[in-house]
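User
Please review the sequence:
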Amino acid sequence: MTISTTATDYKTDENGDMIPTYIGPKLNRISPTDIVFDPTAPSFEKAPKIIRSLKTMGQIAAEIQEHPELGYLQEAFDRMRENRHAFANHSQGDFKRNELYDINGFTGFWHYFNSDYVEVLDFYGDFFDKETGELKRNHLISVVDRSVVIRAQSN
């Protein structure tokens, strides 16, 4: 489970005004098939983890516009769209090994890239940046289509 800090519940008073009844953390369930973490870590909080989610292209576009604090990169979203457009111009028969590239919930990557859905892999934890030689602690890195980094920020 993860905790979302943006939970707000409302009720409507007799004048039709919305009144907050609860503001605070909210638990969100993560399916055991959508999370991978280091079981040898001293605690779940300290364990590096990858959480998988599926979003639509529209959801990601809306989050980029409406929630810049999430840190999604517009350039990465545009590159993801270009990649998908390139795949859409091919037939399924062009991909001889389509079934080898399994994306959970899809028959193969051809079906995945021709759908409106985007697999988002969120990595939480420490990582070593090979390019700079720097250890980056407590970062959030989001990868879409298993190839495009759409967010990389301190957590």
Notes: The beta strands are 2-12, 18-28, 35-37, 49-56, 117-129, 134-144, 148-154. Residues 1-30 form one domain. The chain has two domains: 1-30, 31-154. The longest helix spans residues 74-88.
